[in-house]
Amino acid sequence: MGTQVGPEIHGDERDALLAFLDAQRGGIRRAVLGLSDERAATTPSASALSLSGLLKHAAETEESWLATARQVMPEVQRDESDWDESFVLVGDETVAERLEYWHKVAERTETFIRGLGRLDETFPLPEAPWFPPGERASMRWLLLHLVTEMSRHAGHADIIRETLDGRTAFELVARERGEVGG
């Protein structure tokens, strides 16, 4: 998949939002293309972010928001004691394993969103200092929030990957399509 979503080719609002979300996921997924786990874990900038850490964080973030919208407990629960682990691979985690996990999360997101009657349906936002007490959000807001979150991290991933080996997002798209080697 390319980095762009074609205008009006996906039908309705739901299809368009899901397509934009997947396009941004693709930017993060492609950033680790062809890298070893060790190389993907390097932090080549002043930031502590690595590509494998961004991948893990993005997958966990999507899963957490999906659980929130479904009003169930997320698979991975983070708090101050282990928040830093959401940005690094730990134990036997690998880039391939995190990609597979995210693929399953993305499928669950799509199934859930497609099963909704309307995107105006709401869910309670979690208790947090940045949300007013009792605040609710629509499924449309959820999708827009996920697109925003993934876009931000896809940009981080672009910078980190280019810093690592000079590969740009467009080169990685071509590589993913098999249009160029290496």
Strands, count: 2
Mean of all residue-level pLDDT scores: 92
SS strand fraction: under 5%
Main sheet makeup: 2 strands, antiparallel
Which word captures the global form? globular
N-to-C terminal Cα separation, in Å? Answer: 19 Å
Supply the helix-strand structural class.
mainly alpha
Indicate the percent of residues in helices: 40-55%
SSE series: HHHHEEHH
Order of strands in the sheet with most strands: 1-2
Low-confidence stretches: none
Question: What's the helix count?
Answer: 6
Radius of gyration computed on alpha carbons: 17 Å
Describe this structure in words.
It is a single chain. The chain is mainly α and 182 residues long. It is 54% helix and 3% strand. It contains six helices and two strands, in the order ααααββαα. Strands 1-2 form a two-stranded antiparallel sheet. Helix 1 packs antiparallel against helix 3, helix 3 runs parallel beside helix 4 and helix 3 packs antiparallel against helix 5. The longest helix has 27 residues. The protein is globular. 26% of the residues are buried.
